[in-house]
Write a structure and sequence with these properties.
homodimer; alpha/beta; Rossmann fold; S-formylglutathione hydrolase activity (chains A, B); EC 3.1.2.12 (chains A, B); hydrolase (chains A, B); S-formylglutathione hydrolase (chains A, B)
Chain lengths: ~280, ~280
């Protein structure tokens, strides 16, 4: 575990760490924001951010403007990369398949199955490595954690929380892909990573998972009405399914907002407060 | 004048515009943030941001986190590029000379003199073009404006405000180059752009200009103590000169902060409030 960046930020510290992932078979980087409370020895909850297509660990930490409110609320932020990386990892020239497009699942098909295990990485390996790192640095945690993300990362946050009940105590998303099995982005990568088994697709599709969710974790979703990818996102499908089964969802359609980090930054404070309320409650 | 980007942001709008600069002999882009008050027809003051070496108009608008507080305070933010650009504009392979390193002055030496006229661009041509654009869009301004910047852009803000008394009603800087004539960055570009005349150098050196400043505009400067470029910045020279002549300066040494946008973002709110107090009075 090697620290490749560290910057004072709002009284806390924004760091980037690199480690070798045995799950993914490559070196991985992640962003780690330690709020002032964590540096002062106070136990803080963890909040995982999952980024969208083409992103690395850098997009969130440089553009989302999350550090100020995380500093105020005492939240530790973790921002992993979006896929395995490197010359020895299979890739595809398209932006929406392969490196930068891990979709937070474990691939079962060649050539992806060996490295593309982002679900195991985010849910198991990274938290274990992080716990060891934080303990070594004397940073205390409360044992509670939340998850959120954007677009492909919103899909990741929703599906990982729904597939691993009890693992996360708070959940939200910006412009998530809520029904990947029904839209081009999802159909393309699910075919590549999971083959053509409809059950495998449904197991990684938030709208399909809602009905059988074992806990009713309240979900906050923000969606811009001028989002250029609205046809790939279709938040109304999530709303309809949540209404159907009584899953608590607050879906906010934000007039005029697009798919960019300008949209994310504008509502970041609301999301961090949503998580802090559930995690610190 | 062509709009190349527009994004809803904190209830306002972050835009990027491109226009042909006759002063610089090339096409130029600049960022423009319109706060909600400006969109609602209320007259707002203008605040110019000048970026540092290697930056374009993008760095400030994506990384500084300024939009939230600008929205609250009703400030219009303008972020120009840092030099003339393009294949027909002289350049140098080094990061600290030529494109990306305009230093906010009018060059007098070949091959730079034809295009490198960033002082005239920032002080005259851009404000005139902007006034026409805002009028055309029905955006009202108060007639008052401030200027601030980072590193080379901090030098730009200080020297342009000191060289053009009455033009700006508020002034601040993050980690500015306060005495370019005395440090390697400045000595290199001043030799290239201005030749070897000591008087020409002093005319673009903030510490040299303070003594004869025609108005005593209060200056706020933040400087990180862990800034990797501290030897090129030397804020203590500005402090000594301001003490000597009674120029109001608030120099804050920020423990542990470096030269990055994480530092800038951490104190952006304070700077915007400094400007709003002076501009909205």
């Amino acid at each position: 575990m090697q620290r490749t960046e560290h910057h004072a930020s709002f009284g806390g510290r924004q760091e980037v760490w690199q480690h070798t992932s045995t799950t993914l078979g490559c070196d991985m980087k992640f962003g780690l924001y330690l709020p002032p409370a964590a540096l002062a020895g106070e136990a803080c909850p963890l909040l995982y951010w999952l980024s969208g297509l083409t992103c690395t660990e850098q997009n969130f930490i440089t553009k989302a403007g999350a550090q100020q409110v995380a500093a105020e609320l005492g939240l530790i932020l973790i921002a992993p990369d979006t896929s395995p990386r490197g010359d020895n990892v299979p890739n595809d020239p398209a932006y929406d398949l392969g490196q930068g497009a891990g979709f937070y699942l474990n691939a079962t098909q060649a050539p992806w199955a060996k490295n593309y295990r982002m679900e195991d990485y985010v849910v198991d390996e990274l938290p274990t490595a992080l716990a060891a790192l934080l303990a070594q640095q004397g940073v205390k945690t409360t044992g509670r954690q939340g998850i959120f993300g954007h677009s492909m990362g919103g899909h990741g946050a929703l599906t990982l929380a729904l597939r691993h009940p009890g693992r996360y105590q708070s959940l939200s998303a910006f412009a998530p892909i809520v029904a990947p099995r029904l839209v081009p982005w999802g159909q393309k990568v699910f075919t590549a990573y999971l083959g053509d088994d409809p059950a495998a697709w449904a197991a990684h599709d938030a709208v399909s998972l809602i009905a059988t969710a074992q806990d009713r974790l309240p979900i906050l979703v923000d969606q811009g009405t001028d989002d250029e990818f609205l046809k790939q996102l279709q938040p109304e499908l999530l709303q309809a399914e949540c209404d159907q089964v009584g899953h608590p969802l607050t879906l906010r359609m934000q007039p005029g907002y697009d798919h960019s980090y300008y949209f994310i930054a504008s509502f970041m404070g609301d999301h961090l407060r949503h998580h802090a309320t559930a995690l610190r409650g």
